[in-house]
Amino acid sequence: MDLDENLPEVALMREEYRQRRDLACASLNHYPGIRAIQPVGGMFVMADVLQIGLSAQHFAEHLLVGYCLSVLVGEAFGASAMAHIRSGWWWISGNSRNS
């Protein structure tokens, strides 16, 4: 079997992950001052949090302490990612929008 074959399972998985990505970005964009940067690939989303009035570090600490939600501060990726956070979205179910 070639990896470039048109397998229905791959198409289903691709659609599931597209739905998860879209839901994660839409959820982040729902909050004033947070702007998700929709990834083309991968399982993480970067979000610009500059407009919320906290540094990315303070915002990440707030999420961890207040909501037990761990995100990575963007500064770990260099100066261009300052005021950003990175969050994984692989755990989101594409069907959870109906929950």
UniProtKB/TrEMBL annotation:
Leading EC class: transferase
Enzyme Commission no: 2.6.1.84
InterPro entries: PyrdxlP-dep_Trfase (IPR015424), PyrdxlP-dep_Trfase_small (IPR015422)
Keyword entries, A-Z: Aminotransferase, Pyruvate, Transferase
GO molecular function terms noted in the UniProt entry: transaminase activity
SUPFAM superfamilies according to UniProt: PLP-dependent transferases (SSF53383)
Protein name: Arginine--pyruvate transaminase AruH
